[in-house]
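Q: My collaborator sent me two sequences in one message, no labels, and asked for predicted structures for both. Can we handle them in order? The first one she listed is below.
A: Yes, handling them in the order given. First sequence, followed by its C-alpha cells:
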Amino acid sequence: MLILIALLSGGLFGLGLVVSGMIDPAKVLGFLNLFGGWDPSLVLVMGGALAVFTPGYLLWRKGHDRSVLGTELPRVPAPTIDARLVGGALIFGIGWGLAGLCPGPAIGLAGSLQWQAGLFIAAMVAGFWLVGRLQSVGSTAAGSGKP
C-alpha cells in the first residue's frame, strides 16, 4: 500500500512539474537571471505548492504524532545553520544555476531521453555516493578518536 501511495504521489509531483514547465532548464535559468529577463513563474509554482501544503501540514501536526497511515512522524529538529548546511546549499545552488535543473525536474526530464538529463542524473548519483563515502569516513574517524 505504501509503495502505491508513493508511486501516485511521485506521479502527481512529476505531472505538476511537467504542467508548470519546471522541467525546462531555460525556464529555471530565466528565474535565476535576476538582472536580465527575469521569469517569476517559478515563484508562483513554489507559492502554489506551499499554499496547498502548509495549512494541511500545520493542522495535522498540531494534534497528531502519527501519519494518516499510522507511522510515527519524525520530530522536526531545531534549525542549525552550520558549515555543512551552507556548503551544501552553495553546491546545490551552483549546480542548479549551471544546469537549470534540480533532482525532481531532472528525473521528469529523463523521460524525454535527453542526454543532458542523463548526465545530470549520473552526476547527482555520483554526488550522493561521494557524500555517503565522506560521511562514513568522517564517522569512522570520529568513532576512533582520531581527528
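Q: And the one she listed second?
A: Here it is, processed independently of the first:
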Amino acid sequence: MGTVVMYGSVSVDGFIADEHDQPGPLFDWLSSGDVPLDASGEVKVSQTSYDYTRPYWNQIGATLVGRHVFDMTDGWGGQPPSGVDHVVVVTHRPEPHGWDPEAPFHFVDGVEAAVAMAKELAGDRLVEVAAGEVGGQVLAAGLVNEVRMDVVPVVLGSGKRFFGSVDAQHLLEDPDVVIQGNRVLHLRYRVRPRSA
C-alpha cells in the first residue's frame, strides 16, 4: 500500500492559514514563476519548484482532508484538486444534500478508517494528508510516513497550525530533500518510527 504523506504550504512560524482560514501569502510561490504546474496554466512556479512538485503531484492516488477544508472549498465542485483521483473526507456528517454520488469523494468517520480507505484507493501510489487538524490527528495516530512542507518566507504570528493541535513529541529524520524555489523552500522529512 502507498506511503502516507502529510503536506502543506506553511509560514516560517508554523501556520497554514490565519485565524480566519485565509492563507495570505502562503500560496504566492504558486504564481512566482513562468512554468505552468498544471493544465490550467493559472499556477506558475519556478523551474526548480516544478521539477520537485510536479513529480510529487503525479504520484498522489488519494488526498485525505477534513470536513472543514471540504466545506471551505465547496468540495472543489466535485472535482478533486490537482488531478488527484480520489478525495477521502474525514467527517462525522454525511455528504452534503444533493451531492453527486458519482463524484470520487468518500466520506469516512475517523482518521484510521479514512487512511485505510485512502490507501486502498491509492493502491501503490501516495496518500496525501492535508496539514492542519486532520493531518495532526493522522500523525498522532502513527500513520504518517513522511512530512513535506513548502515553507514560505512569511511570519503569520497566529492562526491554524501545520500540525494542528498535536501536543506530543514526534521525531522526524533529518530532511532528505531541501530545495530552494522562488519564495519557497521545499522540505521533506521521513517520520521516525515510534519506539516500541
